[in-house]
Amino acid sequence: MYFFYLRLLWTLLLCSLLSPLMGQAGTQELKRRDLEELAAVQSLMTLQRFDDASQRLAKLVKKYPEVAELRYLDGEIDQYEHRYAEAATAITKGIALDGGSSARAYRRLGDVCTQAGDYAAALGHYETYRAKVGEGGRASSIATADKLVAQARTVAELAANPYPFAPAPLGPGVNTPESLEYFPNLSVDGQQLIFTRRVNRQQEDFYQSRRQADGQWGKATPLTGVNTELNEGAQTITADGNYLVFTGCGRRDGAGGCDLYASTRVGDRWTDAVNLGPGINTRSSESQPSLSQDGSLLFFASNREGGLGQDDIYVVGRRADGSWGRPVNLGPTVNTPSNDRYPFWAADGKTLYFTSSGRPGMGGADLFKTSVNAANQWQKPTNLGYPINTPGEETNLFIALDGRTAYFSKGVGNDIDIYTFDLPGKLRPAPATYVQVSVVDDQTGQPLEASVRLQPQKPGGIVSARSTDASGHYLTVLPIGLDYGFSVEKSGYVFYSDRFSLTDTFSVTEPFRLQIRLQPVKEVASSETAEADGAIVLRNVFFETASDALIGLSTEELDRLATLLREQPAVSVEIAGHTDDVGTEAANQTLSERRARRVKAYLETQGIAAERITAVGYGESRPVATNATEAGRASNRRTTFRLVF
């Protein structure tokens, strides 16, 4: 029976070849023996044995130089082997031989020119293809031709306005000839790289590399504790390096083809990976995750039911208890009826990069950029342009905190490496910096697990509330262009507050590294951070200019002070107002007293008895910095509190 079907297949193949190659007007006819040789050539092509196919076809071309179909087949082999100039030559010869009667030949010539980077020529060939198809062609063929012409016009326009682009490979410490490297993730300080490596082009595992003193990347080593005998890939990690989400396919505990898994770093050890569960994973495929820097948002691609296309991009929020909410489709502004994949959520907290095959571009799948506006609406995506995008597929983009240093994988077939390049200015997200904090007991120096709050100093700013780890450490990212209120709290300790101003000139190469010494309530008077009289500055309490009217953002810090006083019912507080030396001494004295009284009044509204609060004003009499500079005057304009036991 097997041989019967084999002979039937061979007969059908010969018949398909006889039709175009026998009895062609003005051309040579192939003999049956040569038709059998031609069938063997096509069989070799099906098996992707292009070198063997090319050698045998060359003999036929030499014997039948006037047969156009042989030239087209020669061009097809050259195209598969990425010999685009030779492919174009062969197809052009075929067109000349058959008098330009083959519409399909012009389409293939357009494809070859596109792959060769000759986009203007490609457009011309697609237009010829459209004209020929329009001569009595089917509606579906005409629609396909129209789409090809429109695509070619877009490609030609993008190619006519190229961006500067000079990708550089990361070097032998990361890239290897025997394996594939992709999905780069860079630490916030730019010193560590985690990526996926397909070892010997078979086993997917995570590897890590550290930047050396000379700027080169050191030899990558496996990420111990996460890698297993199964495949792990397409990872994303939080800014503090402690929470990793990745794609795992075909696992026993999986819900579908590919699921998302998470692992947490505890000290120097990674926990066993845990499936993120039915709230996120479905019977379909979930992959290509991208976490926000603080781990509160997770973007991923999925082909689940109810989407807008094949693969769509979704986002899900993380609750305070660490569990995940319900994923939401990003909607038609981002997703298309085709594939939309490989999301990357930038550190500025508003810009998304992704790969789409459903939008006009260079062909294949291009990289796009979109962002959310003040109303939390997605903006129309922008193509990253040529030559970042090519007729191939561009994926897994990663952008460092500076907003300009980009990483991605690039290659052909079984030769894929990680590259870096400078992202052109118009395509960059806003830069960001980071805060790295160590919290300890002011008296003992022991690390403390404390609550950390970070709030942009603008109306509607989203508060980030987290805790330090068991070692007292905390790290978060701050997008440039905003001011931030920052506080650290622990029961039994006086809270710490600070303010980060990133609206003025600021270098992203200068992160905030703080050691915060929380003061036990009973020891506050002896703290090194207190002023001479034991007072502590309320760094996020603000007033209208030359007024005692509290700005709304001040209430969070005052609520914090009220909570401390409620926890310590035997403790009283002195609120003091201070000014700079601008204006008269009398006016400054009066203003400082009014501001202190306003704070006292607010604390009373929070249930603190009036007799526990003393309000005093010191005017300009107690400066802590020079009044000769604006920065110094800003330091002198302050409100303080001093606990009284």
UniProtKB/TrEMBL annotation:
Domain OmpA-like: 531-645
PROSITE patterns, A to Z: OMPA_1, OMPA_2
Localization, UniProt: Cell outer membrane
Keyword field contains Membrane: yes
Annotated InterPro entries: 6-blade_b-propeller_TolB-like (IPR011042), Bact_OuterMem_StrucFunc (IPR050330), OMP_bac (IPR006664), OmpA-like (IPR006665), OMPA-like_CS (IPR006690), OmpA-like_sf (IPR036737), TPR-like_helical_dom_sf (IPR011990), WD40 (IPR011659)
Gene3D superfamilies the UniProt entry points to: Carboxypeptidase-like, regulatory domain, OmpA-like domain, Tetratricopeptide repeat domain, TolB, C-terminal domain
PANTHER family, sorted: LIPOPROTEIN YIAD-RELATED, STATOR ELEMENT OF FLAGELLAR MOTOR COMPLEX
Name of the protein described by the UniProt record: Peptidoglycan-associated lipoprotein
Native species: Neolewinella maritima
